[in-house]
Amino acid sequence: MHILLVASAFNSLTQRVHAELRDRGHTVAVELALPGRSLTRAVRRHDPRLVVAPMLKTVIPREVWTRWPCFVVHPGPLGDRGPSSLDWAVQAGAEDWGVTVFQADEELDAGDVWASVRCPVPPVSKSDLYRGEIADAAMAAVLRAVERFASGTFTPVPQRAARTRPYLDQSVRRIDWAADTTETVVRKLRAADSRPGVRDVLRGEEWYLHGGHPERALHGAPGALLATRCGAICRATSDGAVWIPELRRPRLPGEPPTFKMPAVTALGDRLPPVPELASSPIRAARTWADIRYTEEADVGFLSFSFPGGAMSTTQCTRLLHAYREACARPTGVLVLGTQRDFFSNGIHLGVIESAPDPAAESWANINALDDLVEAVLTTTDRLVVSAIGGSAAAGGVMLALAADEVWCRAGAVLNPHYGLLGLYGSEFWTYTLPRRVGAVTAERLMRECLPVSAAGALHIGLVDRVLDCGAGDFAGEVGSLAARLAALPATSSRIMDKKTELDRQEAVEPLSAFRQRELARMRATFDDPNAPYHALRRAFVTKQPPTDTPPHLAHSRSGPRVTGTDPADLSSRQHP
Length: 576
Known about the structure:
The protein has 576 residues and is of the alpha/beta class. It is 37% helix and 19% strand. Among the domains are: 170-268, Formyl transferase, C-terminal domain (Methionyl-tRNA Fmet Formyltransferase, Chain A, domain 2, Roll), CATH 3.10.25.10; 281-544, 2-enoyl-CoA Hydratase, Chain A, domain 1 (Alpha-Beta Complex), CATH 3.90.226.10.
């Protein structure tokens, strides 16, 4: 059927709903609910059979919900209402939560229920939870609600007992460093990790704190800064300490919007003389670090987790060093990836935007990421597997494609394109993408700039295997499959063939030629102050909404039934 998605932003959940509904043969379009734009007029223009709102911060107009059935996705279980549902769940330490799909009605969040799905709440950040367990439950609930609606036989259930939770403001989020335990501080930080952050005073200035990880070994006066690691700061609590990866300055009147930055970079010369606790991922202590390496038999696991999936010049360089250390280990298979949440979204636009010379930092960042991708592409003494536990975009997708095999969790969404930021792209995409999906499909992916579901990626050959499991089970599933891969008799011969294949490619057209052509296009864009990239980058990091729904989203898109949209179909295309 023809479905219109109405959303405040084309966020991760909206992208997933868009991709997975198209996988099932529906015609799908998107309209953003933007200030100054008539949502009623937009819906009338599409005249859909059904409106679905995966993430909507405004009220659907009466003129819309009285004419078209409108399904609203609420990230809370039956009986939960209010704008801060997930924030309350994480801050209160809930172990179980859910997602409800109800029909828009006169009373806010009070319409009849079409579907409700429960899910666990692991001890992770709100944004990680939202893109993991909540997104899985939301997708299941949306598909169930759409199927029930299409059947014409289901009667939605009226809501009864309900609890409307108030907005979780800073007075409730406030940290009492002298009294709050590490567990309490971590929950408060995680409940606000993406937005709005926890407002606090640090070194005599106000900051928003984003993200939190417990630290048990370090202690100090509550509130004091104790150390730094990987761009994060460690701050003492009443019984331990926490690592805070990012900070954001409050916006002052007349100033442009502020955005999150690595904490050490944001503090700059305000940072007191504290030790930098850096160590090799291979010898990392049992504490927080954004890059880790472990081994099990003949398999090495190099995992990384960067806030928002963004990889700065420094992060790319550190990951490259860790990759080279991992390649010095005596293993036959190396798994590169994330245990959950984002794999990578490419270069770090926030660090670039804050740099004294954004063009120069863009150039440094893209070259550092290219160095990492080239190292993966030229590894010939072992099989490399990319494990995409969350989602990936732009250069992050191309980093994954550099591996011999790409394994992807069923709930992941891939955005293998660069055009929305006005970039041609690099990371050897002109070599790896056509090699996997063919020249015609590669051109289409770049031109359409639309998200691809995990099942859709498997269908076109973008990934080799889709793992139908929860976010918390992905690492274990990958470990088991990697051990099987390492034990296969064919793996040794595949490794031996890698050097021959690389030599053949270098004789036909060296990898350096692909890199040079791509970087020439990127350099021209970076050095042109009038190139759209600079304004698009600034709008992205400062979260400026568009003035209208982008045409590539507003255009109705249909897709054939994709094998792999049912759990029983999710499997490997090529390898056992």
